[in-house]
Amino acid sequence: MTGTTGRVALVTGASSGIGAATARLLAARGMRVVVNYLRNVTAADEVVAGIEAAGGQAMAVQADVREAAAVESMVKQVKAAWGGIDVLVHNALIPYVVKPFHDMTWNELGGKLDAEMRAAFAVTKAVLPAMTEQGWGRIIYLGTGLSHHPREGMIALGTAKAALVQFARYLAQELGPRGITVNVVEPGPVEDTRMAKNVLDEKHRQRQVAATPMGRLAHPDDVAQAVAFYAGEDNAFMTGTTAAVNGGMSMY
């Protein structure tokens, strides 16, 4: 096996946006890609068809990543077809409310925290046995710059993703001796994603662009490039790190 050719990558929430861009890029680099989706089978099938038309290998698999049994079933399906999963890109966006703390219930804040970590826990548990057995693995979680730089109304998302980042660091420490790296990619606002459409009106978008030294917001492909680096053979010694993909909007 040379490079990443033949490696199996699971991308959660891969039917659109960052997940779809990541699936396409990993496939273009020779990985066999599992396009996980929750509801939109048509969009997931389109991603798979595009990958196959370009000469790559992909399969669409439905699973709610918040449900451990569904995740286990998905991983078993992949194992039957292709063997163990070598690369996990956990991108699935868990729903959250946009509102100030003053108006928020514990179920809205605590529910997001619980669902965020439940999903990360489930997908990570499911892929670790195969990675451990072969002494090689790559785990990448999608975070958000809002974990470091608060914005009005985004306390549920920012707090939950901050927990995810710390979870990743602890895993990086524990899994390093097994040959498994664990890293986080934190995009700023990204064009053409469900999250951007939910929280960015045009006035807010222009303000974000003005605050970005690169003069534009990120595209899904920009984020996918960072994920693909972390997923590859070339990343042999970076673990427990966070890559900010925000065009210099915030620097940390």
Automatic annotation (TrEMBL):
Alphabetized InterPro entries for the sequence: NAD(P)-bd_dom_sf (IPR036291), SDR (IPR050259), SDR_fam (IPR002347)
Pfam families: adh_short_C2
Domain of life where this protein originates: Bacteria
GO molecular function: oxidoreductase activity
Stored SUPFAM superfamilies: NAD(P)-binding Rossmann-fold domains
The EC number(s) this enzyme carries: 1.1.1.-
UniProt keyword list: Oxidoreductase
Record has Oxidoreductase as a keyword: yes
Top-tier EC class: oxidoreductase
PANTHER family named among the record's database cross-references: 3-OXOACYL-(ACYL-CARRIER-PROTEIN) REDUCTASE, 3-OXOACYL-[ACYL-CARRIER-PROTEIN] REDUCTASE FABG
Family, per entry: Belongs to the short-chain dehydrogenases/reductases (SDR) family.
Name listed for the protein in its UniProt record: SDR family NAD(P)-dependent oxidoreductase
Taxonomic source organism: Nonomuraea helvata
